[in-house]
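hey can u check if this looks right to u? its 172 residues, i copy pasted from the old doc so theres a chance i mangled smth
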Amino acid sequence: MRRHGPAPRLRDLIFFASHGLIDAVLSKGVLVVTTPPAVVALNFTVDRLLLADAQRVLAAHQPGATGRCRQLHCHNTPWPCQAALTAQRAAAVAQGDRPVVGRVRWTLTDAARRLPIDVPLPRLAADVLDTLFWFPAATLAAVAKRARTTVNSVQQTLAQLRRHGLVHLQAT
């Protein structure tokens, strides 16, 4: 029988079993792996350091009773905060998933939809809100092009609008 890659080490098997990546039981001091060998081989592509970091960030950025992130650095932003979303993507990539572009999109909140038309707003904020109102599936690049600015400045504006409760990230 031909092996693909290095033989699994005991500490790797224990790590994968403790994180739910493989099914294993400890019987009389022996670790018995009940997951098929092909699945075990696939799970050895896991980046353990990235996965551990992502799990630490996700543990720190949990939603509170109000639905906002409890982490002090997030300044009470709606959950999932940017750090939690990044950690979820990092955990998926660490476990061998390909990153999927477009899993989240920016949408207007009810407060933004009820905003009176004559409220004075900075030009870029008004352009971003207007674009998201008329083109809800617009990408950041499309919003930046319509507002005649850079993607980085649109991201900063969206972060400010999010802090004010006018936009939020929605999973697609």
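Residues 48-60 form the longest helix (13 residues).
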